[in-house]
Amino acid sequence: MSEDFLHAAPEIERFADVIEPHFYRDAPDHWHVVLTDVRGSTKAIEAGRYRDVNALGVASIVAIRNATPDLELPYVFGGDGATLLIPETRRVVCEAALRGVRKLARSAFELELRAGVVSVGELRSAGHGVQVARFRASPFVRLAMLRGSGIAQAERWVKDPVASPRYAVSEDGPDAASFEGFECRWQPVPSRRGQIVSLIVQALDATEAERAQSYRQIIATLETALGEGAGHPISLAGLRLGTLFGKYSIEARLRSGVTEGERHRAAAGEARKKSLIGRALMALGASAGGFDGKAYPRELVENSDFRKFDEALRMVLDVSAEQLAVIEAELERARDEGHVVYGVHRAPSALITCYLRSYQGDHVHFIDGSDGGYALAARQLKAQLAERMPGV
């Protein structure tokens, strides 16, 4: 199959259909699953550094996308890391980009990024499939959805103390990474309904059909409680770019590769200048330099990556206390019956981290809850899984 196999998959129009098998296509054997995550992310989050953790997760997507600008590569942002698929023909440039992200994590964030690469063919030989679909999030953006046990198996191999050296991206070799298009200038978006909830749900049923039914039930509960798309955590009213007195530290460190000094100050100054220009254009509804102050905020809301499926449902939702009670009651019922495990993290606001190829349509915005988000929701899910399936 060709490098653009993803285009063979039909587009999913309704998010509720992301669990339907007929929308998915098998990833070719000569492709690879790439996994990144920040080691010790929980401790970093507890130290108040969740935006740093979040930024490195997005940075790994940006670096690989920039290394393969002519391809539509599947990727899923997971909070403290990311999952991507790459073809064998681009492995060399992608591994160089991953080494570049790892170098950045150490030099500018004092964090350690784990990066592993696992062959789809090897996973399939071991009985674990990897399938990909395309969800039409907006007129401008298609987001990858993943299914099959191969993603979870790849993660186990990459994190296994014995097996991991085989899959880890080598320290030897070029470490060229471009972070062009990475932006982190939006202030946290406060909840309008009461709280921002980062939710992860994983079905445990024995068969594919039973797991799909469990996911359908959870999605149906969400749609009944919130309405289709009503839990969207980003609104035009809540969007605020950074101010004159903002530090712009994350973008400055990522672009300069250092924590202080002249290059860092220059990068922070550039981000501050562009943020202030953006604020003015948005206030006036004016356009300049390719930035449309009226259209861009609307596109940002539409292009937000706030819900996804990668053999687990992952969503960031703005909910009221009453809505969350309904959702958690259904999750508890499904857990008691052995159908699912889940993780929920509550926060007062949502975070936005951006990847732009253009200010006109071609931009994606990765959403997570503040103060821990997906990473802490995953911790709760893993604790529930350990209770039900010791040793997993």
Describe the SSE topology:
Layout: E1 11-12, E2 25-26, E3 31-38, H1 41-46, H2 50-67, E4 75-77, E5 81-87, H3 91-109, E6 113-119, H4 120-125, E7 131-136, E8 142-147, H5 150-159, H6 164-167, E9 182-183, E10 189-190, E11 195-203, H7 208-226, H8 249-256, H9 262-284, E12 287-288, E13 291-292, H10 295-302, E14 304-305, E15 307-309, E16 313-319, H11 321-336, E17 340-347, E18 349-356, E19 363-369, H12 373-388
Parallel strand pairs: 1-7, 14-19
Antiparallel strand pairs: 2-7, 3-5, 3-6, 4-5, 7-8, 9-18, 10-18, 11-16, 11-17, 12-13, 15-16, 18-19
How would you explain this protein's 3D organization?
The protein has helices spanning 41-46, 50-67, 91-109, 120-125, 150-159, 164-167, 208-226, 249-256, 262-284, 295-302, 321-336, 373-388, and strands spanning 11-12, 25-26, 31-38, 75-77, 81-87, 113-119, 131-136, 142-147, 182-183, 189-190, 195-203, 287-288, 291-292, 304-305, 307-309, 313-319, 340-347, 349-356, 363-369. With 392 residues, the chain is an alpha+beta fold. The chain has a domain at 5-178: Alpha-Beta Plaits, CATH 3.30.70. Strands 9, 10, 14, 18 and 19 form a 5-stranded mixed beta sheet that branches. Strands 1, 2, 7 and 8 form a 4-stranded mixed beta sheet that branches. Strand 15 (307-309) and strand 16 form a beta hairpin. Helix 2 packs antiparallel against helix 3 (91-109), helix 7 (208-226) packs antiparallel against helix 11 (321-336) and helix 8 (249-256) crosses helix 9 (262-284). The model has no long low-confidence stretch (mean pLDDT 93).
